[in-house]
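Objective 1b: paired records.
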Amino acid sequence: MKRRLSLCLSAAVLLGMVPAQAAAVAVPDVTDALGGTGVVVIEAQGGADGQALFDAYGPWNTWTEEQRREAAGWSEDAWWSYWGAYESHAWALVDQYDTDLNGWYTDYYGESLWGDEDSYLDELREELGLPYPDGINVNWNGTWMDFGSCAPRAVSGRTLVPFRGFYEAAGAEVSYEKGTLTAAWEDGTTVTLAAGDTVLRWNQGEKLLEEEVGEPYIEDGRVYLPVRAAARTLGLEVEWDDYLSLVYLTDWESLREEVDSHFTHLNALLAAASAYEADTVYESETSFQLSGTLYGEKKHDTASLALTGEGLYRGDGRAMDASITLDLDAGGMEETLFSQLPDQAADLLQQLNGARLEVRMDADEGNLYFRSSLPEAYQDTWVALEGDPLPDVAGEPLTIGTLLTTFYQSDGLYSYGYGAAALQESSLWLQALLGDENFRVTRSGERTVYTLEQTTLTIGKRAGELGLLEEGSLLDTLSALGSAPDVSFSLRAECSGEKLTSAALDLRIRAEGTNPVEFTLTARRDGQNAEGTLALAGRYLGRVDGAWKVDSVPTQAAIPTAPGEKDEVIPLWTWLEELDLI
């Protein structure tokens, strides 16, 4: 899913559907998960205060009117503390259920429901290829760290790694002189730990930092220090897998650089893709039409929809005033496909015809407002999402590495320590499709033309070279791909200096079989204007055809980024509550 999302966003930038600046998002600051003891302690947001609120009030759906009136005075922090404690309670109940179910199953059937847990763990750890299958292991950016005989260990509740082994693996030269261990890098960075001292010291440029690490642990002349402290000196993020006793260390910056080293051509195109000046206001008109035909034995039923949008937006994507209108014609499908829907769903489809959505945004203030013609009771009411100003990242280039590290650093996968490995696999698949080796680049003066052409066989060959396919000869792989969908993909982009002047994308996917299906997509961009088509057809099922167009021109108009003074505005949570959506 992440691979598809990053690829789609990149294509949207190239073809003028999304301003490049708007797609560049700041990487969130994630706090280390390992505490000073090296043990993860999960608390509800707000800690004990949230637990006290949950103990006093119980689950939200059981509250009395009196409790709801009392809670109306809570602060936002108190609310989120309560919900954090509620979530912890829910998971504790699930864990207890699993334990109880397994206990009953073992008593009733004479064997464990989950099988032999120890054997399963042994198999899993062996499958992972851990250097220390019976102990604690450390993974750095997807690679297991091997410290030889100085294995990581847990001492007095602390997870420890050897000073020398850890920093040498990080590329430092480690020395011991006059009772002080020093790890030094060529750029002048040093980390020091003096004998008998409880403070680890290091520098970031001219800035000196230190952290209390407790009494140093020494065994066989080797000095160990807490993995959390060691990781902090290098700016690494830390995750702990308690089930398998694994420490995951992630250096997102080095991962971004590694990814971007394989996409210099695509990144150059993304940098050139912004045809919009950051401080200029543009007037835009957008249209999207979609029509479908369902093949029947005796007749064909059709339906169509059209989305039309207009509005003003700033070139950096941080301010907008836009509206979208939907026109829906169920046509013959109202009596066939739609007639099978529940009455409420059928009524909603009829109401959607002519539905309108208005959006106003000001990222500098952190505010977003929307107003919709549905539901009817709120068609004149603006709904507000008000928060902190969003970071301004206009000066940061949009790159494939930035996209992938941002997605995986904030994704749920990272919470389980697999963010780096998932990012690297995603990068390899994108590399097979859009990596530098696939581009042909020609230059003449200020003019640069990028051309890329791919088919099922060329993608399969490249994926095999990158180790992404099953083991076997390349001939076997290509033979197996003969029964795979037939894919042809081409991209041609032309730049003048550092600006993209035109781009064209053509994609065709055809799957044979008892019911052949074909999908085609075309997209063209010329300056600030773009258009495209799509079609999906099944020989015996039907077809869907679509077309879209975006026209933008600079304007002197001012962008209204908030409702008017006399407009009615309500918070999002109030709106959701009044509609019984939460």
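Objective 1b, second protein:
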Amino acid sequence: MRLSEATTETPAGGTTTATPNAGSPIPQPSEQPVAEPQTGAGGAAVESSADSVTASVAREAEDADGSGEPAGARGAEAASGEETPPEFVEVAVDSAPRGSRPAESETPRSHDERPVSRRAKKLIELTRPAGANSKRVAEKIARKAVGRIVTDNSPSTQPIPIIAALKGTPYQAPVATVVKTEEEARMILDLAVDIGAIMLRAGAGSADVEVSVIATCTSLGLLDVEVDLTSNSLTVHYANPDGTFMTVMRVNREESIHFAKLASVHTLVSDMADGKIDYLEARERIDAIRRQRRPYGETFVTVAWGLLAGCFVLLLGGGYIASFLGFIMAIVNDRFGALLGRTGMPPFFTIAAQSMFTTLVAMTAWTFDLIAGPQYLVASGIVLLLPTLGLFSAVQDSLTKFPLTAASRTVEVFMSMAGIVSGIALGLRVGMLIGLSPIEIVVESGGVEALSTIISLIAASIVAACGSIGNQAARRIILPAAGVGLIGFFALTGLGVIGLGTIITSLIAATVVGFLCRPIALWRGAPAIVMLIPAIFPLLQGLSIFSAVYEIVQPQDAVPLSAGLSSLFTAVTANAALAVGAVLGNFLARPLGMHKRRSEPPVDPAPAA
């Protein structure tokens, strides 16, 4: 340790050197002392003030000393001339007359002879305000506080911090300790709403969008944010410590399903929450995600939808000719719907036209004796038109306290179902008017008991895999989704064999699917919805909807209207039970899909001004 010396002239013209002795206290000067900066073990200056060190650091310094006295008190003792540790060296001007100090005190002690204790090194390191150690301690304390907020289950009458919304989610956001400037806060808000807008457009649910926006803001240092979310808009509010209010909003005017993009956004938010990337890298990645191309071309997706319809016919018990017709019908229907969509026609009329076309194709094949069961062909076409994603999102929003978005999505689902029912009824009437043979077979709901086990299981796997391709999921999701869909269909068939009702069977089978999808999807680097929607396709009740509509359009003397309406309500409820079970299974699997928190502190993610 370097020793500093101070000299002063004596009345006789000489000088006196004052050097503290290691074995005795520093003498008390009679005049104002002039102290040089104290130095630590490595020669770096240590400030006597600890303004930038938190109270917890001071307490740790007391514990390290073992004496129960704060570091500031020991510094005060050193300044007053009382007992001073050997690592704190202070040299003052000596104003005493020559000869009043013993001769041995004028001989300075060398640096090598002054030992530095381990306790001194620790105290110097703890009291260093600009070092990395104090920053790590502060961030550790902040993360512990956030952990207590997130894991606290007791009710509170105070406003709940926004970080509590991340409880049970894959994102465990660290807290940046640096207060953001207005410009930095604006940049972080822009990034957060861009992420939310991309997720809304790609088909994410409201709960997933909200937690992603919150995780983005909190991991980059904005804790006092509020998120306002509707079915087609996202607004984020933030108030700076100086009282400046900022609001950023994005509007989503149309939806374009892109599950691969959802998986990329999920990986980005997870990396930010883990502290692996900073703002600049996150901005570059979100710009690249916005330009991300679809993993499959339009023609390939159309063929996948056709293969899904063909395999669904086999899954329900139809023949191979009906399966081939379903394949061709689905391809034509998909191109027909795309053509109508380009004209700006509302979705209700597009779905009704597609449903009518499907019904007419089935009646035509039935008239020319090409197929033995036209109901299976109609059911396969209905599955492609069912608002599976919208139904799941509506149920999820209603169960996760998003009543406004749930009501909006429910209206959309109701209009889609109304379009399907109207199209089927119109197709049956038009077919009879042009001389096609009416469908006289009234099928029972869920007639899967007659299927061969091997054919049905293979068909269920292909249906789930084609659902992944149709929703533009990443390639790494296809095989896991096919496996989960196979397990779900096996559970559905087994529960139907033992005699459980359609609604209970659908609920339990979907719960199994939801329970498996969450941990597997997170393991594959994607949100649960990316795997859950394709895995539900083999469980959809398209045959029940056709059976109910067929009963409604029958003459009153053959089948009462009340019976048809009751069957339709049961069919719609069974499909809603699939969504409820999927949400329940996703909730039950939360402990299995928790994202592991990093043990080391994150890098400060403050954006560059």
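Confidence is low (pLDDT under 50) at residues 1-114, 442-448, 595-609. Strands lie at 6-9, 15-18, 225-229, 233-239, 245-251.
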